[in-house]
Amino acid sequence: MALPPNGPIEVVFSLDTTGSMSSILDEVRHRLQDMITRLQADIPGIRFAVVAHGDYCDAEHFYVTKHVDFTDDLPTLCNFMNDVSGTGGGDVSECYELVLRLVREKLSWTPCSQQILIMVGDAYPHEADYPLNVDKIDWREELHFYTHAGVHIYGVHVFEDELSASFMKTISEQTRGEYIKMADFNHVCDVIMAICYRERGADFLEGYEAEVRSRFGKKRMDDGLEDVFGALKRADSKASNTTLPPPLSPLSSMTSSEPSTSVTTIRKISSIPHDPLNRLPKLKTKVKARKVTTANSRGGESTSMPFIKPKKTKHIRYPKKTKPSAAKCKKPNYNQPQRKLLRERVTVNNFLYNNLHWSSWKLAIQPRPVTKQPSPGWKPVNNQLRRTVLYPGSRRTRPAFYEVAVQTKPGHKRHVVYFTVKNFSWAPENWFNILFDDKGSQQVKSVVSSGCRVFVRKAHLVIRKPNTATRFVNDVRRVFDYPWSGSRDVYIQNDDVFISNQ
Question: Residue ranges of region Disordered (predicted)?
Answer without folding.
Answer: 236-307
